[in-house]
Design a protein that fits this description.
Length: 275
């Protein structure tokens, strides 16, 4: 059921295993079918991660977003002079991106088998991707390390098991999934959610040294991607916007600590060694 606890090992099995009523194909359709590329790109400047991209990403060396989805960051960063490409295992979103902007360097592929030689990329961006591998992050992180130059940077985000989720979201969704199971619905793996310590342990085990570990969400205190994702009843019509009750909850929690309701953890880590 949703909210099952697991241990963590070097393959990235997180502290909290999350389930859903949607199978993997339905999850992909649900994630991207109703979203527009323009909306996703417009949201980029409002994200807390933006300042770390601007502060750490090189403009004169190749960058890959591994698991680019609708390609918002590929669009946003390429428009600002970065040499960035994208790869994703959903052929439909790559087709949409190519139709929307044919000049974008995006392609279909598996982030566990990247089409690059060893040590050729200066940075890899992985935003909310590796937590979806039920057998863990090991293959994807090993491949990431392989294609990065010595000292290359990994911008890594995964969902976090924040206090708001532990107290409210996870118990409520566990009850909901139990009810759906009693009705005969199937339950499917969705993702793992991590703590700060688990993320740093995971990356160090795969040859990366964390330089920054911080919360990942929107910068504005009246927004919360964590609340937006976990409580659909609080979603407003505009993408990522919250209704008044959601904004009030986000403001109170964010004012106390950005860790209380943030959606994820960002770790900027550097590849160690020469291999």
């Amino acid at each position: 059921m949703r909210g099952q606890r697991t241990g963590i090992d070097i393959r990235g099995r997180g502290m909290r295993k999350i389930y859903t009523i949607r199978d993997p194909e339905s999850q992909r359709v649900h994630m991207w079918s109703t979203r527009r590329i323009e909306e996703e790109v417009a949201a980029c400047p409002r994200r807390s991660i933006t300042k770390y991209f601007e502060g750490y990403l090189p403009k004169d060396a190749p960058i890959l977003e591994a698991g680019c989805g609708l390609g918002a960051w590929v669009v946003y960063l390429s428009d600002r002079g970065y040499d960035i490409a994208g790869i994703d295992n959903d052929a439909s979103v790559i087709e949409r991106l190519k139709a929307w902007k044919p000049t974008l360097d995006v392609r279909f592929g598996d982030i566990r088998k990247l089409p690059y030689e060893d040590g050729v990329l200066a940075a890899i961006i992985s935003l909310g991707v590796m937590e979806h591998f039920e057998d863990g992050c090991e293959a994807a992180l090993n491949e990431t390390r392989r294609v990065l130059k010595p000292g290359g940077l990994l911008f890594f985000t995964v969902p976090t098991n924040n206090p708001f989720r532990r107290v409210f979201a996870h118990p409520m969704r566990s009850c909901y999934l139990q009810w759906r199971k009693r009705r005969g619905d199937s339950i499917h793996f969705a993702e793992y959610r991590f703590s700060r310590g688990e993320v740093e342990t995971l990356l160090r085990a795969h040859g990366f040294e964390p330089e920054i570990t911080t919360w990942d969400d929107f910068s504005e205190t009246t927004m919360s991607l964590g609340i937006w994702a976990d409580f659909p009843m609080l979603q407003a019509k505009a993408l990522y916007e919250l209704k008044h009750a959601g904004k009030a909850a986000a403001f109170v929690l964010n004012s106390l600590s950005r860790w209380l309701a943030c959606s994820g953890i960002l770790c900027v880590a550097r590849k160690q060694g020469s291999g």
